[in-house]
Amino acid sequence: MKKILLCSLGSRGDMEPFLALGQQLKKQGNAIAFCMPAQMETLAKEVSPQFFPQSAAFLDLVNSPSVRAIIGQVGSGWSRIKTILGLISKTRPIQEQLILDQEAAVLAFEPDKIIFHIKCIYPLLWGIQGKGEVCLLSPIPCMVHSVTHEPHIGFGKPRAAWWNRMTYRWATFALVHQSILGYGKKFIKAKKMKLDAKRIHTFMQERLEVQYSISEQLFPKPNYWPSQAKITGFLQRDNSGQFQPSEALMTFLGQHPAPLYMSFGSMVNAQPKQVGSDLLAVCEQLRQPIIINTSWGGIELPKLLPKWVFVVEEIPYDFLFQHIKAVIHHGGSGTVHNAFEARKPQLIIPHIADQFFWSRTLVRIGAAVEGFPIKKWSQVRLKTALEALLEKTASL
Prior knowledge:
Elements (H helix, E strand, L loop, with lengths): L2 E5 L4 H16 L3 E7 L3 H4 L6 E4 L2 H6 L2 H7 L5 H33 L3 E4 L5 H7 L4 E6 L22 H23 L1 H6 L6 H10 L2 E4 L16 E3 L15 H9 L4 E4 L8 H14 L4 E4 L15 E4 L4 H4 L5 E4 L3 H9 L4 E3 L5 H11 L3 E2 L9 H17 L1
Parallel strand pairs: 1-2, 1-4, 2-3, 4-5, 5-6, 6-7, 8-9, 8-11, 9-10, 11-12, 12-13
């Protein structure tokens, strides 16, 4: 038996792979603990009572109107740049506290191994010092190890192979200097660690185990990756038997079998009311019933809705995807994998980062129809894309 600490930062989507892996490791007889934002305590304790909080200030900042405006590309590019610059002073003390919170969890739990999210700094420092095993868990492939046909997720569309490879060097440079040696500077100095960029880079490239929790059907491991980089398959918690659908939902599914499903998850955008209005208009024109997840506000709907529309805020995909025809979504890794495993055609309207990668990947293998970026939203584009999606479902 090992004592394993799972350490993650971010939104609910960043927590789920760690919760799923924790569930698996616990069934294997290991002692499991979680170190996550304080807001995730109830969620984490569904898997293990051992929970160590990280400062709530991180998620409070991520969920603030200014940050969500950046994510949703609200306003001009210049206004978003000014907002980012204004957030730098707020970010540093929060990041410094997160490092202390992560260290406190390690000191209290005394793990044999830490499995961590790339946003977490202390586990990497702990591993470099040789205090125990560390493993980076990533639900996104184009992060640490370079891919010749895809750039790092922060660098847009694929270009020439040399350019794609170069983007990983730039991203690693930023991670090492801005995050680890930047936010971690005070901690590293206080602990008198002998640490420089070269040592960190060598550790990450040559010694750090990285588990990419993605399907090999979607992204086979490149033959030029090192042995410590592994494709481990999609991670999802077993929630079977825990969900009880409402009578209203079952009535809707009985009256409107095989509807579409649409969700933007935790993503927001500059025109949520227009998105909702256009979606209803197009579905009415196509006479297509739909279940809409309004979630964090990326889709706003009027109070009075037609009978062929059903609204949800949270619903397990292992249940829902048994009953729908196709999925329209933002391109989050979890939704991508759930829909792919359920063999449901997808239409991705990407907002940021890896969502563009997943859209390209699914279109290339025939699991999705061509979408469009949220910033290019229009009713005409939506109708064209939905017609292609419905045509694809009819051919299955």
